[in-house]
Amino acid sequence: MPLEAFSPTSSVVGILTGGVTAVDRSLLLSHGTAQTQAVQSIQNNFGSRIDAALAKLNSANATPLTDALRRDQAVLTGRKERLNDSIDVVNKSLGQFQYLKNHVYYLRSQITALENGSISASALAEDWDNKLRKINQLTLAADHAYKDGGQYYHKNLISAMSRTSFQPQSFFAPYNSNGDTHLITGVYLGVDYYLTETSPGTEFWNSDTARLTNETATGTLTEYTSYPDTPSGNTEDVTTINFTDFTDNASGNDIVTFKRADLTDVTASITRGGLGLLDAWLYDDFQTSVDANAIRRAKADLEVAEGLILNTEADFKADLQTLQSRSTLFDALITGIEKEIDQRLIDIQGDAEAELIALQLEFQVAQFGFALLASRGNTLIFSLVLAQDSRTGDVVGSTTDFGEAVVGSTLNIRA
Fold it and tell me: What gap in Å lies between CA 95 and CA 100, rounded to an integer?
């Protein structure tokens, strides 16, 4: 199109600037950029706030309060595990009681059979020593291994490690959430004894009869000048030992007299451990040729052993009931904390989710409001441009012609 076709009022500046010869047209051309920048600003502002709300929602499962509750729960869980170990320890021991009672009942029945003439004294003596070994094996089988603090421990409430003190193990079980404990006192239910010479010296005698694992093995009585490191060299076969006397001592330890292989008379006091049963030779091998009271003593010792087993069983059952009731309490406490944590998290997550939804809704409202404002601004500026163009009535061509003739002049209405 030739230059003469342009409006004479159109200046070279207007042509070179795309027809921008008035403020309203300048607003029109910069309006799109301003809107874009404003929209970007709104997005950035709300975007950061929404991101923060999302982060808060994602981290809603970790707060100082819930962390404290989880620590309390972890402590209770650890105590509950140790309590379960305590229950296992007691149960392991209780599992041996019926067998222990059966062996005592069996020995009593064998004495009755001896008295009735059904078995011989030598057969009873052999059977007696074998039953002592089985009793000790039962006590050893009550050992329970448990893990605490990354290390393994062994507990046995009815056995004893020391052959001089016969001291059993005890166990402190968790009792409540305050850290209190319940003491379970072990009771040695095996059989063991030692002799302390009162004449001719003060040596220590120890028997391995009840500790042998083979029923056909023969027990040995060994003398020590210092137990257990220094044996004197004197030993006696318990099946052939020369038993000479036994004295009941109601005020203290019983006294036994026997001859060594070199025929030296030995007098010694007896210290019993566990059930208090002795080797068969200390009951004169049930011959009663030397000790007429041997069978009576054996019966009395079996009665004491049975009483100890029954009383200990009753105590352990009471301990077990106590521990089981405490276990139920710990379960309730742990479950209660878990429910409280869950409720706290629900509340926290609900608040965080509500905040996020509110921000998203606010963002949508802001976008809609801005769109309305932008639409109204576009309409106003468009009206100004049309008004400007319509004032050129003496110019050849219409408003549209004039707008098309202005180099670079475009009209954008954004909503």
Answer: 10
290: its two tokens: 């030397």
Per residue of the chain (415 residues), give pLDDT as tens.
Answer: 444 444 444 444 444 444 444 444 444 444 556 556 655 665 666 566 656 655 655 555 556 666 665 666 666 676 777 878 889 999 999 999 999 999 999 999 999 999 999 999 999 999 999 999 999 999 999 999 987 777 888 999 999 989 999 999 998 888 777 778 889 999 999 999 999 999 999 999 999 999 999 888 899 999 999 999 999 999 999 999 999 999 998 777 899 999 998 999 999 999 999 999 999 999 999 999 999 999 999 999 999 999 999 999 999 999 999 988 887 776 766 676 666 666 555 555 555 555 555 555 455 555 545 555 555 555 555 555 555 555 444 444 444 544 444 434 444 434 4
Q: What is the DSSP string of 133-180?
A: HHHHHHHHTT-EEEEETTEEEEE-SS-BS-TTT-PBP-EEEE-STTS-
Return the domain boundaries, the chain: 192-274
Q: Are 242 and 256 in contact (CB under 8 A)?
A: no
Q: Please state the φ and ψ torsions of residue 140, each to the nearest 5 degrees.
A: -65, -30
The partner residues of 148 in beta bridges, in order of sequence, read: 151
Give the pair of three-digit tokens for residue 174. Answer: 């968790």
Pairing between β-strand 191-199 and β-strand 181-184 as defined by DSSP bridges? unpaired
249 burial via Cβ count (<10 Å: 0-12, 13-18, 19+): exposed
3-state secondary structure of 41: helix
CA distance 211 to 222: 13
Which is nearest to 138 in space by CA: 162, 156, 161? 156
The answer to whether residues 82 and 148 touch, using CB atoms and an 8 Å cutoff, is yes
Q: Decide the pairing of beta strands 255-259 and 151-155.
A: unpaired
Quote the pTM value. 0.67
In contact, 22 and 409? CB cutoff 8 Å: no
For CA atoms 309, 310, 315, 316, give the dihedral sign.
Answer: positive
